[in-house]
Amino acid sequence: MKKILLLLTFTLCIVSCETNQHPAQKKTELTQKQFPKLVSNRYNVGFLIMDGVYNTELTAPFDIFQHTIFRENIKAMNVFTVANTDEAVTTFEGMRILPDFNYLKDSVPKIDILVVPSAEHHLDTDLQDKAMIAFVQKVAKEAQFVTSHCDGAFVLAKAGLLNNVASTTFPSDIEKMREMFPKLDIRDSTLFVHDGKYITSAGGARSFEAALYLCEHLYGKEIAKSLAGGLVIDWNLEDYPHTVVK
Known about the structure:
By secondary structure, the protein is an alpha/beta fold. The chain has one domain: Rossmann fold (3-Layer(aba) Sandwich), CATH 3.40.50.880. Helices cover 36% and strands 18% of the residues. The protein has helices at residues 2-19, 23-31, 55-66, 130-142, 152-158, 174-180, 207-219, 221-230; strands spanning 43-48, 77-83, 89-90, 96-97, 101-102, 113-116, 145-149, 166-167, 185-186, 192-195, 198-201, 242-245. The strands form three sheets. It has an eight-stranded mixed beta sheet, sandwiched between helices. Strand 1, helix 3 (55-66) and strand 2 (77-83) form a beta-alpha-beta unit. Helix 3 runs parallel beside helix 7 (207-219) and helix 7 packs antiparallel against helix 8.
């Protein structure tokens, strides 16, 4: 009986301590920013997100790249998101995503592969965001690859990264891109273009193929087919119209 009373007293003390925890302390614990754990000796892959980002252009390459951690004997990828805010970013389709890093104030890890998914205002107001454009320019200097999907190519073009390379974008926006950036070599009738360290894709569901292409480029055909199979994609690079500029 005495042991039972002692156990009840001990339990009540624990509950009382938790209940009497200062509200401000509890709020700090709940709202303290949690940075992702980045494993060493992996590619750091940063996804640039903002309000209006399109789900598919974000989630398709994110899925492909994240699954590299389940493959053996390769240099896998750490995937994370970067934005200009600590608040949740709302995608065009309404999904809310809490960014991993705020490039305006956090110490963003070195990005080996930058991914720029398309967003609702990549043809207009986003291109006036000087801080965002400067961030893309800064990352591109040291990144091994810079990739875009759909109208993300407009951001790369605005940053001056496509001046000397071939590129592509969402099919119905190719003429618009040519009007806005008349000196660029913008290709049509292709799903993605690889020129130097830049890979630009038509976007949409074809974002999967562009991401698989980069994986095949880095890891070889068998790993790419394995990643594709995990997402029930019948992958054969030659089946997809693409352009590689040597």
